Amino acid sequence: MEEEPGAPVAADADLSTLAITLLKGVIYREGDERLWGALLDLQTRVREYLVILGLELVLDEAEGYAFLRGKPDCEDGSGLKAPRLVARRPLSFPVSLLLALLRRKLAEFDASGGDTRLVLSRDDLVELVRVFLPDSSNEARLVDQIETHINKIVDLGFLRRLKATSGPASYEVRRILKAFVDAQWLADFDARLAAYQNQLAGASATAGGADDE
Q1: Model-level pTM?
Q2: Distance in angstroms (rounded) separating the CA atoms of residues 176 and 65
Q3: CA-to-CA distance for 207 and 118, rounded, in angstroms?
Q4: All domains of the chain, ordered by start, with CATH?
Q5: pLDDT in tens, the chain (213 residues)
């Protein structure tokens, strides 16, 4: 009896496609239902393949996303550390601040039991972060700076810009943010934020004292 031609090759092709796509970024269920279905079917093989590269598949079937996370640095027995395939991206304080605020907003939104999609306008995002930034006499410049931070978060994949025919832009907060900003991260950031606010208060008091002289 002859083997059915093409079946193993097709499976290998799907595995390669999945691995390459994951190496490029996040796979969303809503973005490609066929690709998502293939990932669910082959996730065991995908995990086995990626672990050889020192990568871990993070898949949340309920939320509908999957991405790769690098395993902790380890040696291969020769005293050399394995190369990192998923780069770490240092974030500026304003970007970290906005991510933390969005994570809290998402938690509050989920607790309300409403829609599953949290959508915020550009003005909502500006007001969310404005109170934590130093006062500026140039409102337009401040808004431009915040928009730069928003665009960075869009590039990181935690916000998705929605199509709009008119008015300010709107953004969907991607639920994958929950996988990156956990309770411990928020707690650590709260400590940094408290120190930052104390610095701002001290700077404001110093400036006020100088004006009184």
Answers
A1: 0.68
A2: 7
A3: 39
A4: 7-70 (1.10.10), 93-212 (1.10.10.580)
A5: 344 444 444 555 588 889 889 888 889 998 889 999 999 999 999 999 888 888 889 999 988 999 988 776 544 444 444 444 445 567 788 888 898 889 888 888 988 876 778 999 999 999 988 877 777 778 888 888 889 999 999 988 899 999 876 777 899 999 899 888 877 777 777 777 777 677 666 655 555 554 555
